[in-house]
Design goal:
It is a single chain. The protein is an alpha/beta fold. It has a domain of 160 residues: Rossmann fold, CATH 3.40.50.300. 34% of the residues lie in helices and 24% in strands. The protein contains 8 helices and 9 strands.
């Protein structure tokens, strides 16, 4: 299966972005640059704004202030972007049926769907489970199926919102292996997690958010070995942020 990241989607640039809902400022003054390469991992306490940032980068939430651009454009249909939320819904179909439905929705000709479905299920390690009812799969298997659905359009950018939350170590490793696999195929992964060990294993870059503000961002190795801010040092040490 060939996956390519077209230049038209990247870079994704946040310039002084704020997102406000009523009287609540969810994100404030965000300046970020997502480009090709290893995964960018978002970390931060609950309520930091990670999910909102992912939704905004996907194009699902407009900026209240500032601007977001995709490949230099302020408007861009999310055809080559995909997002998987923490608790994706499973259709009342087989594993193959879930992927086939997504392929039909993406406009793939009927004659090509069977082969493409098999390729995607193999990529996420679900070969042999094609006929299993999706809602009878384990939690980890459902997450992998949701990843297969997210990949039907060969996205240039894949946004993952805590995809391994509540999964056991075996299921977590399976998801991480898929993230590595799609990265080698040219897909830019932007992913949130609460697991600092996972962030160290996967990240090319780290983004630390707290209370809707960008605290620190940069290469993962530098972030973990030489944090530049007191907040980053405390978070890495497992301390609560004020």
């Amino acid at each position: 299966m060939t996956m390519r990241a077209p230049a038209s989607e990247l870079p994704i640039v946040f310039t002084d972005v704020a997102i406000v809902a009523g009287d609540v400022t969810i994100l404030d003054g965000i300046n970020l640059f997502f480009s090709t390469g290893l995964p960018t991992i978002l970390i931060g306490p609950n309520g930091a704004g990670k999910t909102t940032l992912l939704r905004a980068a996907m194009g699902l939430m407009p900026a209240s202030r500032g601007r977001i651009t995709w490949g230099g454009r302020e408007t861009s249909e999310p055809v080559r972007r995909a997002i998987m939320f923490q608790r994706p819904a499973m259709l009342r179909r087989s594993a193959a049926g879930n992927v086939g439905y997504a392929l039909a929705a993406a406009g793939m000709p009927r004659g090509e769907r069977k082969t493409r479905t098999a390729d995607l299920l193999a990529l996420v390690g679900l070969q042999g489970l094609e006929a299993r009812a999706a809602r009878r799969l384990s939690g980890g298997e459902q997450q992998r199926l949701a990843l297969a659905r997210a990949l039907v359009r060969d996205p240039a950018v894949l946004f993952l919102d805590e995809p391994t939350a509540s999964l056991d170590p075996y299921a977590t490793k399976a998801i991480e292996d898929i993230v590595r696999a799609v990265t080698t195929r040219g897909v830019k992964v932007v992913m949130s997690t609460h697991d600092l060990g996972q962030a160290k294993r996967l990240a090319g870059d780290i983004v630390l958010l707290h209370r809707g503000r960008l605290i620190e961002s940069g290469p993962a190795k530098e972030f973990f070995e030489m944090p530049r801010t007191p907040e980053a040092g405390k978070f890495i040490a497992g301390e609560l942020l004020d």
